[in-house]
Specification:
Blueprint (H helix, E strand, L loop, with lengths): L1 E10 L3 H10 L5 E4 L16 E2 L8 H11 L6 H21 L5 E2 L2 E2 L1 E2 L9 E2 L6 H13 L5 E4 L3 E8 L2 E9 L4 E12 L20 H9 L3 E2 L4 E8 L11 H5 L3 E3 L19 H15 L4 E4 L5 H7 L1 H9 L7 E11 L2 E3 L11 E3 L4 E2 L11 H20 L20 H18 L6 H17 L7 H22 L21 E5 L6 E4 L7
Parallel strand pairs: 1-2, 1-11, 2-8, 11-18, 17-19
Antiparallel strand pairs: 3-7, 4-5, 6-7, 9-10, 10-11, 12-17, 12-20, 13-16, 14-15, 15-16, 20-21
Helix pairs in contact: 1-4, 1-10, 2-3, 3-10, 5-13, 11-12, 11-13, 12-13
Length: about 525
């Protein structure tokens, strides 16, 4: 067991993790523990961009209103206000650090995406915003001497005593080593959980490990029933998929069913640019009605040269898959973003002292029931900085009296059982806790999760056992939340409760060894 000590421990290497690490390096020593390599994260694959007010004809109040509308009544007012007002400053700081966003005629090029009423989405490399931002920050991080990066680390335990976090333990399957890190402040930035679904736009490492870690340590978990399904994920017969950015529809692409009919214009005033939950559900319903497994995204009527230069990565990926982005491509919805997560305050703080959460795995109150497009990268910056500053100002030295070090080892005989369980669970999650849900399907899913848990031959301190435990926790959190919320709102749609219900204008809260509860949404103060 290797022992290390740092002022800050950052778990995860997406935008929230890298930005938090850079910010924290001003105040002390920093360790980054990442599950895979430094550049493997949801942030890296983010195509569309980052939403912030940078145009003189746009105002934070407009951005706030669009966010609240998309959130379907479940956004907490204060964190949204913080996001839209502090976001432009974080963008300005990034640009001053040397980050290059795309420009047009010398000005920042701004895209329009679903749910936005103004062009305010900055992008880089056309459709490679996440990749460009991650590359930029990795380069910065690698030049800072007091940041130490530990790759291939499966963090399996948060060190918590008396509701105070003092670090974490991890295992490296590449060299069979165990690591224990003590820290004054720990920031979880491990991303969401959409890869627990069979069809997803996420890398396969994004299975909610950070959420499971927090839950096991006693953190409050909020709104896990809200999973955002991206409307436009490339469809192929072999299951291979990749994201087709919402910005493609922002440039004017049309959605057509198998009869060649454009269906969104009769469903919502914003047509293809309606909020994601509406577009995804409408596509799903068209597929059900006509017995199809995909719909068509048509760009025939658009300027091909402009599309090719604006979306070079998507164009190339489509071409490699035998499709032509300049004409039309097959798409279908896929699990994309975990709206809920570890409940935090406006400084990323959790109910466990010294433990913070930022990025997709955090439930800041910004996203509500349905994330507004391209708010996610901005949330990483705004609350990442706030978390670091809060942690620095409130750090306390704490060393547990516990001497236990939970080492991990691998039993290779459990690998096939684990992979079979993962595949079965992913398929069940897709069909029973997907875009359209019901009490019957969710109850059946609960039984399946319980049986998979009962049948798995768990071993203490074993690698595959730990991964299976996390999958069971995350799947249960989603399913329990979806069963308890007897209404349809945002990314959660119940065919047995199709309307919004004012009794559920509240956040679901789940905590280990406690029944699920609901707490009211924070409204704007009338003072």
């Amino acid at each position: 067991m290797l022992h290390k000590q740092f002022d800050f421990l950052i778990i995860g290497s997406g935008l929230a993790g890298l930005y938090s690490a850079l910010t924290a390096a001003q105040f002390g020593s920093v360790a980054i523990l990442t599950k895979s390599k430094l550049d493997v994260s949801n942030s890296y694959y983010a195509q569309g961009g980052i939403a912030a007010v940078t145009d003189s004809n746009d105002f934070p109040q407009y951005h706030l209103e669009d966010t609240l509308i998309a959130g379907r009544g479940l956004c907490d007012y204060t964190p949204v206000d913080v996001l839209v007002n502090e976001g432009p400053e974080r963008i300005k700081e990034l640009i001053e650090m040397g980050m290059k966003f795309d420009k047009e005629n010398g000005e920042l090029s701004l895209a329009l995406e679903g749910g936005h009423h103004r062009r305010r989405v900055l992008h880089a490399g056309g459709d490679s915003t996440g990749k460009e931002m991650i590359r930029f920050l990795i380069e910065k991080v690698q030049k800072v001497p007091n940041i130490t990066v530990f790759e291939d680390q499966m963090v399996h335990k948060l060190l918590v005593d008396n509701c105070i976090c003092y670090g974490a333990q991890s295992y490296n399957p590449e060299d069979n080593s165990n690591l224990k890190v003590h820290s004054k402040s720990t920031i979880l930035t491990l991303g969401g959980a959409s890869a627990v679904y069979q069809r997803t736009t996420n890398p396969n490492t994004t299975v909610g490990d950070g959420i499971a870690l927090g839950y096991s340590a006693g953190a409050e978990i909020s709104d896990m029933e809200f999973i955002q399904f991206h409307p436009s994920s490339f469809y192929s017969n072999n299951g291979y998929t990749f994201l087709i950015s919402e910005a493609v529809r922002g440039e004017g692409a049309h959605l057509l069913n198998s009869e060649g009919k454009r269906f969104m214009s009769s469903i919502h005033p914003l047509a293809e640019l309606a909020p994601r939950d509406i577009v995804a559900r409408s596509i799903f319903e068209q597929m059900q009605i006509l017995g199809d497994d995909h719909v068509t995204l048509s760009l025939r009527h658009l300027d091909g040269d402009k599309i090719k230069s604006r979306f070079p990565t998507i164009y190339k990926s489509c071409k490699e898959s035998g499709a032509d982005l300049l004409t039309e491509i097959p798409i279908a919805p896929a699990a994309h973003y975990t709206v809920g997560g570890i409940k935090t305050g406006i400084n990323g703080e959790t109910n466990i002292q010294n433990l913070y959460a930022c990025g997709e795995l955090a439930a800041t109150g910004v996203m509500g029931a349905n994330r507004l497009a391209s708010n996610s990268l901005l949330e990483c910056l705004v609350f990442g900085k706030r978390a670091v500053f809060h942690a620095h100002q409130n750090q306390i030295e704490y060393s547990s009296t516990s001497k236990n070090s939970a080492k991990i080892q691998v039993n290779t005989e459990l690998e096939k059982i684990f992979l079979d369980s993962v595949n079965k669970l992913a398929k069940e999650m897709n069909t029973k806790a997907g875009i359209i849900r019901s009490e019957e399907n969710l109850s059946s899913l609960k039984n399946t999760i319980s049986k998979l848990n009962d049948d798995f031959p768990y071993e203490n301190g074993e690698y595959f056992s730990n991964r299976m435990k996390n999958l069971i926790i995350v799947s249960n959190l989603i399913t329990t939340g979806a069963l308890a919320r007897k209404e349809s709102r945002g990314g959660h749609y119940r065919e047995d409760f199709t309307a919004e219900n004012e009794d559920f204008l509240s956040h679901s809260i789940q905590q280990i060894n406690k029944e699920i509860t609901f707490v009211p949404v924070e409204q704007k103060s009338q003072e």
